[in-house]
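Hi R.,

Here are the chain sequences for the assembly we discussed:
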Amino acid sequence: MFDRRLIKFFDWGLLGLTFFIGFLGLAILYSAVMAEDPGPQKILCIKQLIWYSAGLIVMVLSFLFNYKLLGKWAYAIYLICIILLIAVLFFGTYAGGARRWLILGPVSVQPSEIVKIAVIIILARYYSKHLHTSGLRLRELVTPLIFTLIPFFLIVNQPDLGTAILLILIAGSMTVFVKIEKRSYIYITAFCSILIPAIWFLLKEYQKQRILTFLNPDLDPLGAGYHIIQSKIAVGSGMIFGKGFLQGTQNILDFLPEQHTDFIFSVLAEEWGFVGSLVVLLFFLLIVVRGLTIAYGCRDTFGTILAGGITIFMFWQIVINIGMVIGLMPVVGVPLPFISYGGSSIITLMICIGILMNISMRRFLIE
Amino acid sequence: MGKYLKTADSDWFKQRLIVAMYCVIAVFVVLICRLFYLQVIEGEELRRLSENNCIRLQSIDPPRGLIYDRNGILLVDNRPSFDLSIILKDAKPINNTIEKLSKYIKTNLDDLMPKINKSKGISIYKPFLLKRDIGRDALAVINAHKYELPGVEVNVVPKRHYIERTAAHLIGYLSKMNSDELKSGKYPGCAIGDFIGKFGVEKACESYLRGEPGGRQVEVNATGQIVRILKTVDARPGRNIYLTIDLNLQQKAEKLLEGVAGAVAAMDPTTGEILALASSPSFDQNSFVNGMSHKQWNALISNRLRPMGNKAIQGEYPPASIYKIVTAIAGLEEGIINKDTTFYCQGHYKFGDRDFRCWAEKGHGRVDVVRALAESCDVFFYQVGQKVGIDRLAWYAKACGLGSATRINLDHEASGLVPTAAWKKRRTGVAWQQGETLSVAIGQGYNLVSPLQILVLTSAVANGGIRYKPLILKTIETAEGEIISDDGFHTKREITGKLPASRQTLEIVKKGLWQAVNTGKGTATIASIDGIDISGKTGTAQVVGRKQDETSDEQVVASHLKPHAWFVAFAPSEDPKIAVSVIVEHGRHGSSTAAPIARELIKTYLSSSRVVE
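And here is the predicted structure of the full complex:
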């Protein structure tokens, strides 16, 4: 019954990469947390370790069954995630002006993290059934658009603009990845060039201001602009070899906002310098390349698109987060994979790794 | 479907995956280049900036909105206060710096050190407040020795200043925010220790007055001195507020109340604008801003005369004879009496087995409703009240605005009490006694009203029956002088109800009030002035503890058991411009203590050129 080839094809490389980045992440988190307030914050490291352990279990669960079942269950998974998002709307807890978390027993979860995987799965299933080599036509894009917009608006409403934009980016990149017909591109471009100015015209002054500030943090020198400056100083002050582990000064107390979550890369860059940042970036690149290789090696379209989608997801999350910290991208609340503190983020990423492994170890199975 | 469509298979994807791979690598190269730029090329400069956390944020407090009276006379402004702070990171060696500092500002070292030791856990990069308002002399000394005092900074912070020391209860005061207020979430952007409005208009209009803080990004050197200002966001000053009160009248009211416990409220009966709102004894608003000792605070809150309460809106008193206005309206509207109905008063009225007295022991003889109001005949109103019945009487009282808040835009307004039979049963478990209706009819018994409620009622009688919401804000302006119109109806005339009385009924009541002041036998002749046509009504509210049939020998009664003195008035009787309500606690007779106050206020207001136009 049990196929020995499952072990033979097991992706030890990806597992090794995950473990390595995970441990690195814990070390950086430890440094960030120690700088903040050693007493009560230390528990964050232990919590993160617990999340990682739970993540490993979830990862194993994600590769035990054949990934094709995900295609079969795509709608159910999607529906459950949407229900969770709606539940957040009604029962979610407020923190920092937003309603993002659901309290389930002892833990609080962030359904907007998990919903990204659900969208990837449902799009992979849809595209694998409708795709032709000439690309997707306009009317084949309507259903994926709806699949994306439902969770998008639910997340915007929380409000969590960062996650919502990330969702659009993932879905958009996946769609471009599977190919869109040339004619459709023209229509979409024409449509957007009319719609975007129209929407801009309808927005209220403060909403426009918010979008402009989002695109250019310098317009908010007391908020996002200040964070970016401090973040850039922290990153740059690391110079080539860094100040050394636990030696960062810029992360002390409140100079960097949310340093154990969204701005954690600045702690890394300050303490480990250009060399350390480069090493971490290369490991991230290896994970992304590994994901694409798995998609490459897979022999059915659903698996290929799924692996591609998941890799795209991790790619964007890495690029947006680091891009924000080094002042290349707007300030968006997106965590750095495997390193930022946050249970829902870790669990989601471990599911991603599990699914990639799942696809990788079953690549010999022909449809 | 077109046969040119070919299903995509995994081989077809290989080409696309290779392209994707290149894209990914390209993006990572961009990230690496940027890191190289920041960490290697700019590294040295950014390392320098990081050494002392050189780029810092300073907040700029917005100047709080000013408060004016109705004629634009400034009542409350802000004056600069020099606050001394220290940034612990820069102030090294700390002990040395503090020692010098204590010498320069002539403050005991023992006063400063504990504060510093307590500051553990606060960011060492953030200014930590050592002493507020050190004064210009100390400022000059510190500036002269600036370089011996690293990390020490003096910030000019606007501090609230109550110029005229007037209308303390209406204007209110600022005080430091506490943790409960922080948790309430009503003060976004404020921290514990910030000054917020705690009472009166300062509290009610907090969101208008506060403004929005700004800030600047600055670069500092190793000793914490500002090298340059990188960016500035200006603070938005708070809105300026014009109150409806007339400073001249307000000060007059406060002067007249000096030495007694009581309250005065005056209103323009045609708009509902409050012209004066005074409560006595009062307190010094500036002492809240400057900070007061525990002893001072305890003295304030334990004072038996309750200086911290605004008696004009929070005080609840039996309405006494003022209530006869309500009883008269009820009797006339219910058809129980008309303007010609008379009752005979022989100084007392026997009801059941009790004898209800009239205040005039010898009696008033045969009186109609106008004379009964003018001479405040109790016996007349005992009989009217008895015939109307308690629940109908309560209905009229409520329709006159008693028993519910007037919705003035201030906290802690008392709503008073209008008793009904059901209320008493619910409250005490004992059924209503017929005799109690008689007490209620002359404003004794369970009735409770605030001076403001009575003022609204008086205004309504004066203006032909319209009850206005008492307004305290005339206009709200931006710092640039632009009037803000969308202000949630705080400044707009608003009708809250109409008196349950026809024109004829009101004419009769007004005639009674006119005769009270202007005929020889009226109870309020003391209020009359040459040249001004005043109408009014006295009231003498028995204090709990004395019964109707106890001795009323004034010499025997202890001062805290003396009755409260009421007087309400409006003038000119036709086309009224001002209505006044006065209460003097334990002032004995409305006619002797309260009426002269009302008279002087009306004289002051009507003789000022602004009203005559």
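The radius of gyration of chain B is 34 Å. The domain at 247-282+309-612 of chain B is CATH 3.40.710.10 (Beta-lactamase).

Let me know if anything looks off.

Best,
T.
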